Amino acid sequence: MFICSPVFEEGRSPYYLQLYQYMKKEIVEGRLSATEKLPSIRGLSTHLHVSKNTVEAAYQQLLAEGYIESQPKKGYFVSQVGPSLFKTIQTKEENKFRFNPSINVQTQLPYDFHYGSIERSAFPMKQWKKWSNLAYEMEMGATQAYGEAQGEQSLREEIANYLLQARGINSTAGQIYITSGTQQSISLLCQSILASNQQVAFEEPGYNEARLMFKSHHFSIQPISLEHDGLNVKELNQTQAKIVYTTPSHQFPCGMIMPIKKRLELIQWANETGGIVIEDDYDGEYRYRGKPIPALRSLSDEIIYLGTFSKMLLPSLRISFAVLPPRMLEKLQTLNQTVPRVIQNTMSLFMKEGDWERHVRRMKTLYQKKHDLLIHSIEEHLGESVKIVGSDSGLHLLLEVHSNDTEQQLIDKAAENGVKVYPTHLYWSDPRKVHQKLIMIGFGNIENEKINKGILKLQEAWFGLREDG
């Protein structure tokens, strides 16, 4: 019998990722045997004292990569792949992508340009605690044990009001479904709205965790190349895909913004083919030149819109949402709500009393300063040695580095000099087709005073000391 006993480390990486890595290691090293039955999601979450979402996300990742299999009405089982084969593959991969043994990937480095982290010190704790206390009082007097499956009505109404003002989206509370993250939103669509075993057109490169979620639900991925202004719609028209996933307001990870002409072409594709467009608007509020671009969903009620609060508040709160076209509402399966009602009610009060809009304005100002400082530092210290990609929006940018070093060599050299930067090859469906050396630089949670010094350290690591330095 499998005894699962991972040691979770707070702040190292998401719990689901730590659990996935632990179980993958158990399989690769043969401690989990082929065909062995794994604990149920509920049972393992109870045993480890983590949420069911954490266990499900770990299982979905293992499922997507083929380490485990799902058998209807029976559960999850270890795939029939022997550890000896893993060892053969590992040896080849280690020779191909060899890390500097002196560098621990998880080591805390002085200058960490991590994407996905936010400025935690700016979280409005005082206001959040105020509304959280009131939400707990409401919870004590509630008669409905688990709340509404679609999400609390009050929060869905506040989201509908906000989307109309901020993103130009006209929707009702009845069209909104509260989820615990974008991946869960996609999972919900795959289980309820989208016909299984279909082909999904997907930006290449694109958000890898969304790609994996589609794959875990047995959808095939059709990569669609990017042009300077986003998804190649002509290429999309040449495929058999009836679903397309896109990030038009800030393409992930390359950062371009889809112009109105191409947006209309994408809507025309959907109208002519009966296709479904899924818009992931993961950080549409952050735009540093001009006003935020209205969402693609503002142009057509037939778009499925995915939104999240993670880039403005704390990712650990796990509040996201999906806005569905009216014609799809009947297909929606009423699944159990995964966001605790008390957190939903706290968020609802936070929005209703105007604290959300004030927080959004503060965060835009804060990140604008960080963004401008980062751009200035790159131009000053790296100059023509790099090309900045996608600098007008969001909480990250890419550096195309003019160097003979590989992506991993650039990352290792940076780490040796105390700077943590991140790869981008994982955002391609086939990393072997990556021809550019693009390094991801996030700036959400790095202190302002470290930005300039960190970029200077990058310059030293990649190109050596400057003559004037």
Automatic annotation (TrEMBL):
<dbReference type="GO" id="GO:0008483">
    <property type="term" value="F:transaminase activity"/>
</dbReference>
<keyword id="KW-0805">Transcription regulation</keyword>
<dbReference type="Pfam" id="PF00392">
    <property type="entry name" value="GntR"/>
</dbReference>
<feature type="domain" description="HTH gntR-type">
    <location>
        <begin position="13"/>
        <end position="81"/>
    </location>
</feature>
<dbReference type="InterPro" id="IPR015424">
    <property type="entry name" value="PyrdxlP-dep_Trfase"/>
</dbReference>
<dbReference type="GO" id="GO:0003700">
    <property type="term" value="F:DNA-binding transcription factor activity"/>
</dbReference>
<keyword id="KW-0238">DNA-binding</keyword>
<keyword id="KW-0808">Transferase</keyword>
<protein>
    <submittedName>
        <fullName>Transcriptional regulator</fullName>
    </submittedName>
</protein>
<keyword id="KW-0804">Transcription</keyword>
<dbReference type="InterPro" id="IPR036390">
    <property type="entry name" value="WH_DNA-bd_sf"/>
</dbReference>
<dbReference type="InterPro" id="IPR036388">
    <property type="entry name" value="WH-like_DNA-bd_sf"/>
</dbReference>
<dbReference type="GO" id="GO:0030170">
    <property type="term" value="F:pyridoxal phosphate binding"/>
</dbReference>
<dbReference type="InterPro" id="IPR004839">
    <property type="entry name" value="Aminotransferase_I/II_large"/>
</dbReference>
<dbReference type="InterPro" id="IPR051446">
    <property type="entry name" value="HTH_trans_reg/aminotransferase"/>
</dbReference>
<dbReference type="InterPro" id="IPR015421">
    <property type="entry name" value="PyrdxlP-dep_Trfase_major"/>
</dbReference>
<comment type="similarity">
    <text>In the C-terminal section; belongs to the class-I pyridoxal-phosphate-dependent aminotransferase family.</text>
</comment>
<keyword id="KW-0032">Aminotransferase</keyword>
<dbReference type="Pfam" id="PF00155">
    <property type="entry name" value="Aminotran_1_2"/>
</dbReference>
<keyword id="KW-0663">Pyridoxal phosphate</keyword>
<dbReference type="InterPro" id="IPR000524">
    <property type="entry name" value="Tscrpt_reg_HTH_GntR"/>
</dbReference>
<dbReference type="GO" id="GO:0003677">
    <property type="term" value="F:DNA binding"/>
</dbReference>
